[in-house]
Amino acid sequence: MKTDLLHRLLDVDPVAGPVELLHRARGDRHLPYLVLAALARDGVRMGEHARAELRRARDRADCYARVARGLADATVVRPIRDLPLAGYYPPDLPRPLGVLSLVSPTEATLWQAVNRLVTDHPVESVEVTLLGERPRHTAVTLRWPAEDPLLDPWYEVRVATAALTGDLATVPVRPYLAADDHVECLIALAEEGLGRAFLAGDVIDVAHLAGQPFEPVETAEVVAAYRLAPEAAALLDLAAEHVPLGSLRDVRTVLEAEVAPELRRRRTLARPLRPRHGTLLRRTVIRHQWDEALLLPAGEAGLLLTPVADYLLGPEGTRPTAAERAAALAALRAWDTTAPGSPDQARCTGLSEPRHR
Known about the structure:
This protein has helices spanning about 5-10, 15-25, 30-40, 50-75, 80-85, 105-120, 180-190, 200-210, 215-225, 230-240, 250-265, 320-340; strands at about 80, 100-105, 125-130, 135-145, 155-160, 275-285, 295, 300-305, 310-315.
């Protein structure tokens, strides 16, 4: 990848120079790092602050790689999307990594991973979302400050028991992702199209995947099986306007027959899935003996007690009232005096109030 591609994707006249290119890239919180790396590779002059920003981005990517290796060895959770995609970039042009996304085969291993992250890093935010009832899927997002918390995005690790969550309406949750690595990356990229328009960074990802040996018929069948033919086709059409598709060109041709059937299928899907988001009530000492979260009734909502924090559940996008929050905290205090220390037996001690940013 050369900077002329970045100029085209960001609609910047090369005559405007590298400053304008970097300025335009700052509309995306992570794309500036890729622009800085491309400019450094081209020998463009840069000062101490630009070099420091690029160094912090490399350190961030290295940190995520270490975290993923450690968690994979200890808990069998594995990275999907961002970190695997980074493996297809050349060493002198590292892929920006805003988020480390991990998938866990069970809720127990999810909480093992969360416990390790909370223990090993200065985590200041732990968010929890539940999807569905039976089976129930859990997604946890942990954040802690970057080296420069004002200039750089915070570190963010997402762990979920579902590899692909769909759009919660027409495309269902698909818990497992099992394909060749480069095909998994294509699927994960296409999944992004369910929630947003494709961006310049997605095109650059496709450019780095294009050299892989995609088998057209098999790849199209797998993408269709994961219910993503329309999004994969749209992504490849956009990418084709800017970069050679290589073996993905034939994948796009075969995909054409899968798009209309998938769109018809989506018009007949049943009831939408409504996620429940946890509003933090308090952080706790790690409940090491817990291997699952405990869901307790609390009016129309519910209390979710996890190995690291307790939450008041509610529809995503809503906030509890002060009265609801006070009632939930009172219910927790009552639970503390009588409850066992795990979802199955003993008692919980050492509870503490949450830390705030």
